[in-house]
Specification:
This protein is an alpha/beta fold. The chain has 2 domains: about 100 residues, Ribosomal protein L30/S12 (60s Ribosomal Protein L30, Chain: A, 2-Layer Sandwich), CATH 3.30.1330.30; about 160 residues, SPOUT methyltransferase, trefoil knot domain (Alpha/beta knot), CATH 3.40.1280.10. Helices cover about 35% and strands about 20% of the residues. It has 10 helices and 12 strands. The strands form 2 sheets. It has a 7-stranded parallel β-sheet with strand order 8-7-6-11-9-12-10, with helices on both faces. A 5-stranded mixed β-sheet has the order 1-4-3-5-2, with helices on both faces. Helix 6 runs parallel beside helix 10. The protein is elongated. It starts with a strand and ends with a helix.
Length: about 260
């Protein structure tokens, strides 16, 4: 186990760069995961822990022995050095460097009752993370990120998802690739939009369904609007005309879960 005291250590500089640059993470095929629970979820999902960094002033070795045993290399950091690489408030003093995994649509396991969440050009890492957390909680089969504008392994995605990116199959692809895959598997494509839509609780979600959401700024593209099998909306009783996309995903995902549980 190597000890690192200085914030100017080259490994610390490399970790700061990895945290800030998605291009560097992609080039090296790595992702940074902070927090014991999140690291354990990554391990349980089969991700390889290459390096583990921890601050013994915050995280005792006895509490993270599973991570220490699994790591290729382990580094003990001073409080100052760890503060330099931490990207979470209220840190647990543990950060792992994992080998990233790129999933394809063929890695998604689905059946005739599956729910898949499709996000078109999602921009905000916090929204993507919150949606992944909802997908895990509501039992969605996968999250498909089309024409991505934010890196799936962005540290803020991992923070907001509390590690759900490792528990829910998450695939990045083009809108056309996603649509072709959904059609081949007989999913009904349901778009969430205000125009020409019926109320969401009048929709049958008990069959294989893809819920498609656009950006908060621009909504859905014409591509998804034109190929959708149904268009649904959440009633807005105040002066606002829309909800945060993560909130919309939560409402519709749990309506789908409610309907499926009633059919059991």
């Amino acid at each position: 186990m190597e000890r690192i005291e200085s914030i100017h250590n080259q490994r610390i500089k490399d970790l700061v760069a990895l945290s800030a640059k998605s291009s560097l993470r992609r080039e090296r095929g790595l992702c940074l995961v902070e927090g014991r629970r999140e690291c354990e979820r990554a391990l349980a999902a089969g991700f390889s822990l290459r390096e583990l960094y921890f601050c013994p002033e915050i995280a005792a070795e006895n509490d993270i022995y599973q991570l220490i045993d699994a790591a290729g290399s382990v580094f003990s950091l001073s409080g100052a050095a760890y503060s330099k690489i931490a990207y979470r408030e209220g840190t647990e003093g543990v950060l792992g460097v994992f080998t990233a995994r790129t999933l394809s649509l063929d890695d998604i396991s689905s059946d005739s009752h599956s729910l898949v969440i499709v996000l078109e050009s999602v921009e905000k890492p916090g929204n993507l993370g919150a949606i992944l957390r909802t997908a895990d909680a509501s039992g969605a089969a996968a999250v498909i990120v089309c024409d991505e504008l934010t890196d799936i392994y962005n540290p803020n995605v991992l923070r907001a998802s509390t590690g759900a990116v490792f528990t829910v199959p998450t695939v990045s692809c083009s809108s056309k690739e996603a649509a072709d895959w959904l059609r081949e598997r007989s999913f009904q494509i349901v778009t969430a939009q205000l125009q020409d839509s019926k109320l969401y609780y009048d929709m049958d979600f008990t069959r294989a369904t893809a819920l498609v959401f656009g950006t908060e700024a621009d909504g859905l593209s014409d591509f998804w609007r034109e190929i959708s099998d149904a268009r649904i909306m959440i009633p807005m009783m105040g002066r606002m005309d829309s909800l945060n996309v993560a909130t919309s995903v939560a409402i519709l995902s749990y309506e789908a879960l409610r309907q499926k549980q009633l059919r059991k």
